[in-house]
Amino acid sequence: MTSDAPRPDRGFGALWIAAGTANLGDGVVLVALPLIALLIGSSPAEVAAITVIATAAWPVLGLHAGWIVDRVPRRGLLVTVNAARAAVFGAVGAAALADALSFPLLAVAAAVFGVTETLADTALVAAVPELVVPQRLTVANARLEATTNIANQLAGPPLAGVLVAVGASAALATGGALYAAAAASLAMLGRAGVRSTAPRAPQPRTGVLAGLRYLWRHDLQRPLTLLTASMNLVWGAWTAVFVLAAVAPGPLALSSTAYGLVLAAMAVGGVLASTVVGRVQRRLGTALVLLLDCVGTVLLVLPVALGAPVWVVVAGLVVAGAGASVWRVLVATIRQRTTPSELLGRVYAASRVLSWGAVPVGAALAGAATELVGLPAAFLGAAVLACLNVVAFPVLWLRLARYDRDMGGEDVAEFANSRNRSSASRA
């Protein structure tokens, strides 16, 4: 094995397999839920509401999820969360088979998905630095990101489209089965590296807010999180209403199966980007590479706003997927390298509250705009915001350049501890 590889003897392999399996379940469920809602006759606002409900848990419960992750065994938490998802989606699939499916039941399933995702994603990110040495975090994160792209975006959406064409019960039950398989893989993960690292706190609320205070005082993590939130407004809008543009009788007039294949275009860009992100970052610098995602977010929505043909929309999705993959890998590494281990779960959760909390807002705004002024105008508004994010990006440039310089010549673990010791004590 090369020196760039994560150390499998510490459990990274089992975590990697479980993450891929669970993300395939996510890819099926996240595409199937709004698509099923559309096919059972829900209104545009109701279809958008599925995305709002599925993502609303981050702003509501995200801080508490980080506090929990920092205080309970992470392996047990991951097993429990995936087992719960398996049970819920298996039950909803059974309801669909019995012809008892309705929009309220889909909304409940979306809510359960959102709540469990806050715990699962936070625990996964917090576990990685304890399974992998600091110098290999970018490689480990890139491998997880590539797996996420393949499972969640490349394989999941087409599979969801095929399964929904077969029947709603097939799609929902498959999602449940994949979550069950992820729980089984996580059960094999050794206890080392997935433990709680934070000391007991006499005031739970103080513990919950510690990650938010740390993030807000950090001169790089704060603006990076705020820009992520602004971009996620655009992604939330796209996620909520793209199905209305793509699936017949929408302007792109795709079938359910073709819709899944179009969504897979994002994963193509994401997989390609995740395999080269480390080398490209070292050659071009973090700032220039992250700028790709800002440009990709423009290309996510502008072709639809302009009524472009399907092939142009697909090309935009490839670039958007590449940019999003690069952003997730590098920002995760920045956060892991500049946050003390005992705060990592709460800092990650705080960042998701602020950044992913924008997704349901964007989804709700897009749903309302589609009802009031039409689908093209909703996409045009998202494109304008995406362009403003590109204009705002230079605010981060010097801080990212300083990060590259600081990380280039010293041990990253010692750098993180020394740079953040004073902030950690205040938190």
TrEMBL record:
Domain Major facilitator superfamily (MFS) profile: 11-401
Membrane topology: Multi-pass membrane protein
Cellular component, GO annotation: plasma membrane
GO MF annotation: an example: transmembrane transporter activity
PROSITE patterns: MFS
UniProt KW keywords: Cell membrane, Membrane, Transmembrane, Transmembrane helix, Transport
Segments crossing the lipid bilayer: 12-41, 47-69, 76-98, 162-190, 224-246, 258-277, 284-304, 310-331, 343-365, 377-398
Xref: CDD domains: MFS_MefA_like
Subcellular location: Cell membrane
Protein name as annotated: Putative MFS family arabinose efflux permease
